[in-house]
Amino acid sequence: MKVLLSVKKITVHYGKAVAINQVSLNVVEESIVSILGANGAGKSTIMRSLSGLIPLTSGEIHFLDRRIDVLAAPEIVKMGLIHVPEGRKLFPYLTVQSNINLGATIRKDSAGIKRDMEEVFRYFPILPKRLNQKAGTLSGGEQQMLAIARGLMAKPRLLLLDEPSLGLAPLIIASLVPVIKDIHKRGVSVLLVEQNIPIALDVADMGYVLQVGRVVLQGDIEALKASEIFKKAYLGD
């Protein structure tokens, strides 16, 4: 299977503090990869560095066989690496429809845009009922649905999902799992940051465990589940 994303020994500083240190990971085509770790481990920093929002101190990031850590964020988006950030980051005073439309700004294929919009409405049937409502007035769960819908409208090759279940009710969280799996079935690879360990283990093929900015465990999900270190740290065994 072809490597879609290759992260090679990246280090990122916030001022003098090291946020992530010599992190390497790969995402192959048609896979779901989870990054696991406690608060402050550096998970979201990795996501922001991949999407060009923060600079690297050292290391390289390659996507579709092209080095992207030297590119501006809009260029990375055009290549199909799409980031759904932690906290949704919607435009709260714009309508649901406007937020969805913004996801497709870089696209010119009107027929494809229409088809993908129908698809996201199938995933999230509440959204077409809220099209004229301002995004900031939606519930937390609805805002997360809108954030993912906006990301999908950009037609990603690789979708970065940063803490999609954060702050959501259990029923809403449960509804996200089949959506992530179906997005994957459509041929979109997914890199998932998720503190909800059962979700991360349920959807992923491969996992990386971060502690204090470093990868301390990696492997396919079944191998991680079998690891004594992982079981003690994350499964309470």
Briefly say what this structure is.
The chain has 237 residues and is an alpha/beta fold. It has 9 helices and 10 strands.
Description:
α3 (96-103) runs parallel beside α5. The protein is built from 9 helices and 10 strands. The model has no long low-confidence stretch (mean pLDDT 92). The protein has helices spanning 43-50, 73-78, 96-103, 110-123, 140-152, 170-185, 197-203, 221-226, 228-235, and strands spanning 3-14, 17-28, 32-36, 58-63, 66-67, 81-84, 158-162, 189-193, 206-211, 214-220. It has 2 domains: 1-80 and 156-165 and 189-237, P-loop containing nucleotide triphosphate hydrolases (Rossmann fold), CATH 3.40.50; 87-155, no CATH class. The strands form 2 sheets. Strands 6-7-8-3-9-10 form a 6-stranded mixed beta sheet, with helices on both faces. A hairpin with a 2-residue loop joins β1 (3-14) and β2. The two termini are 34 Å apart. With 237 residues, the chain is α/β, with parallel strands linked by helices.
